[in-house]
Amino acid sequence: MSRDHTKEATAAPGPAHDADAPFLELLARGAAAEAYDRPVLLARAEGADGGRIAALEHAKVLALRVRSEIEGRRRREAELSALFETAHDLAGPRDVDAVLQAIVQRARSLLGTDIAYLSLHDPARGDTYMRVTEGSVAARFQQLRLGMGEGLGGLVAQTARPYVTDDYFRDERFRHTTTIDAGVRDEGLVAILGVPLTLGPQVIGVLFAADRRARVFEREQIALLASFAALAAAAIDTANLLTETRSALAGLERANEIIQDRSAVIERASDVHDRLAELVLRGGGVHDVAAAVSEVLDGTVRFEESAPADALETSRADGHAVRHRDDWIAAVAAGGELLGALVLRGQPGLDPVDQRTLERAAMVTSLLLLARRSAAEAEQRVRGELLDDLLEARDRDPRLLRERAARLDADLDATHVVLAARLDAPAPDADQEAAARRRLWAAASHLAATRHGLAASRDGGTVLLLPLGRGDTATGLARRTALHLGTAVHEAVTVGASAPVRGLAADPDTVVAAYAEGRRCLDALRLLGRSGDGAAAEDFGFLGLLLAGERDVAGFVERTVGGVVAYDERRGTDLLRTLDAYFAAGMSPARTKDELHVHVNTVAQRLERIGRLLGEDWQSPARALEIQLALKLHRLTAAPSAVAMPVPSAPSS
């Protein structure tokens, strides 16, 4: 084309260009679709020719097409922007509920629906439930649950395909239920679009968009909602992964804490092992073990010889510590024998390693007890051998006897009492009797060791040689020994004691005689029915003269009427002769006054004084017999001048 023709085309546009102008202006200001009819209508009203009107019609069609393309692009930009924002939400550390709420809100906004909602699958119940709603006004609708194949959503979940209906209640492609239909009716929904939320081949929920009027959802809208559903599924998957990750991290933290705790416990157990080993090596005792374990277990551990029977037996049978109320009990046993228990007080919750620590301490305690028992038994045998030698007078070298006794922490030059002890209850058979005798011997040996004495098994019972403390008596020592041994063996033990003896190393025969005296006292106690008691010869009155190894006449007289003799000597009275005359007169005050040539009131006064000196029971048959014997022995041992003295005439009492 020549330059002239170009200028002409530019200066004088043709009819087609004139037809485009009004539509370009409409496109520029984004006018509504109805506004594009006005240029054609104006041209017809002005009487424009047919070519002009045809050009305008053609330009309108092109403008509307351009307008539609522009609106489509704007809509796609908005959709892409919404999808981008949703994806951005997924990339941030937002709560999954907030992300799902944003997805539902944007889907409702972009699709221009009255309501949008999302339901999720419940594996436990096998149905879906409402998770998020936007624009809903009916409470029953918000609480709906849809089973597989029930309602439009159930069909989507079952088939994993999008479904749309422009009139819910007239659509027969899915199964209606009373509950679902009631919820949809409450919400007033008519047109519903549902797309599945899928993770791989699994449907985990459904995303819905719905209107309260009839509506046809376009393919682009279905695709858009499907894109939001994919993002929702990704959000849920991300949340699940995050939850699993957090759970795994929490599990790792707990595992790390457990490892640290176990490491601390192992270190503590190692510390206990070292401390127990040190205790054993330096000769520590049972209570030292309990104290060491108390520090490690942060509680109070004690060794006790008795504990609740059920818990103790269970611990012994299982070999483990057992819980009893708020305490833990670990049996201390050797073979089938129970030696006691370690008891941890006030620790109802106990770590397994700490429990093992308590059990190990119980094992160490049993070993210590066995070692101590073995040492004690060896010492008991040595003590028994020395006492056997003294009783049989085989070793008469005083120096050797003293050396052997000194090694056992005994002093043969001190004053001692020989005690014969025996069980009184008959045993049902020979084995039980032998076991009872062993228990008695063990208890007696322990007592002898703690009292710096000796003990041996002899004549079906036990004999002890115990030192006599200052101010103590043979009777008191015998009674305490009977009580101690009876408590130890849980049976009645009768003990007969000799008179105090001295110089055992120089004259071992003294021990033989003292043991014979102790046995006579033991037999007397049993004959008198005083089983479980302890006594010496001095406790039997005139019978003691027969039981004692040496006839202590002066001692008997002193114990029986010594108070009356001393009173006469101090006051110059004649109570002793009055007492002798009273018995000679058959204990008759009237005949006594005639014998003494005094008034009967004087006799009564003297007898009252005698009763205060001898005790209220002095006229009982047994006491009266002892007093009469003592009076006779007193006369026999008195000086001849005293026997021949004239009787004073009625001195006052």
TrEMBL record:
It comes from the Bacteria. Pfam families: GAF, GGDEF_2, HTH_30. SMART domains: GAF. Gene3D superfamilies: 3.30.450.40, PucR C-terminal helix-turn-helix domain (1.10.10.2840). Residues 95-246 form the GAF domain. InterPro entries: CdaR-like_regulators (IPR051448), CdaR_GGDEF (IPR041522), GAF (IPR003018), GAF-like_dom_sf (IPR029016), PucR_C-HTH_dom (IPR025736), PucR_C-HTH_sf (IPR042070). Belongs to the CdaR family. This is Cyclic diguanylate phosphodiesterase.
